[in-house]
Design brief:
By secondary structure, this protein is α/β, with parallel strands linked by helices. It folds into two domains: about 10-45, no CATH class; about 55-180, Trna Endonuclease, Chain: A, domain 1 (3-Layer(aba) Sandwich), CATH 3.40.1350.10. Helices cover about 45% and strands about 15% of the residues. The chain has a five-stranded mixed β-sheet with strand order 1-2-3-5-7, sandwiched between helices. It has a two-stranded parallel ribbon with strand order 4-6. The longest helix is centred in the N-terminal third of the chain and has 24 residues, at about 30-55.
Length: about 200
């Protein structure tokens, strides 16, 4: 005769043996699925942000953001390294770059907070028919966010949103960037809501 003890999910198994629950309700009550999936997602996001901060300091970050915009369907021109007047990338949809929308992009590879003066300076270089985009690995202060909210042709992308865009468009990245940001598609269980 063999004795054993079920330490994990013991109550659920005993309830199932007594006919009180079904396998579907066991899955619905399994909170570890959500925790595991959340941990994997959080670790991946942290890894991507850390690698971007390590590999793309300074002007290389402009090249990376231009490549990301390229995967989103934009054509880009990156300013040469050195003083650029606050505009690092000019992005547009058409081949020649004359048709709107024309987007003037400034990138900041710092991990700190970007304040209102930087956002205002970029906006000062954007005409009424153009759009401004500021991309950073860090975050934006509340004043910078408030300023951007009041302008319909200005958009701020912080490190969190940048990682979202990287994960969304990763499959279209060229091998150079995939080599610097090695990611692999992994399937994780999706928690089942009680509503389903």
């Amino acid at each position: 005769m063999t004795f054993f003890q079920i330490k994990t999910y013991a109550e659920e198994f005993l309830a199932a043996l007594e006919g009180e629950t079904t396998p579907e309700t066991l899955v619905k009550k399994d909170t570890t699925v959500a925790v595991v999936a959340e941990n994997i997602e959080e670790n991946t996001r942290d890894f991507v942000l850390k690698r971007l901060a390590q590999e793309f300091k300074g002007h290389p970050f402009s090249d990376f953001v231009a490549h990301l915009l390229g995967t989103m369907g934009y054509r880009t021109r990156v300013s040469p390294e050195g003083p650029d007047g606050g505009i690092d990338i000019v992005a547009h949809k058409d081949e020649l770059g004359f048709e709107p929308p024309i987007i003037k992009v400034q990138v900041k590879s710092t991990e700190g907070s970007i304040g209102d003066p930087v956002v205002s300076a970029l906006y000062g270089k954007v005409s009424a028919s153009e759009y401004g985009l500021l991309v950073t690995l860090g975050a934006f202060t509340a004043q910078a966010k408030n300023f951007a909210r009041s302008k319909s042709n200005l958009r701020l992308i912080d490190g969190v949103e940048l990682v979202d865009l990287v994960l969304t468009h990763y499959e279209q990245f060229d091998s150079r960037y995939k080599g610097l940001l090695p990611l692999k598609r992994v399937f994780v269980p999706e928690p089942i809501d009680d509503d389903e």
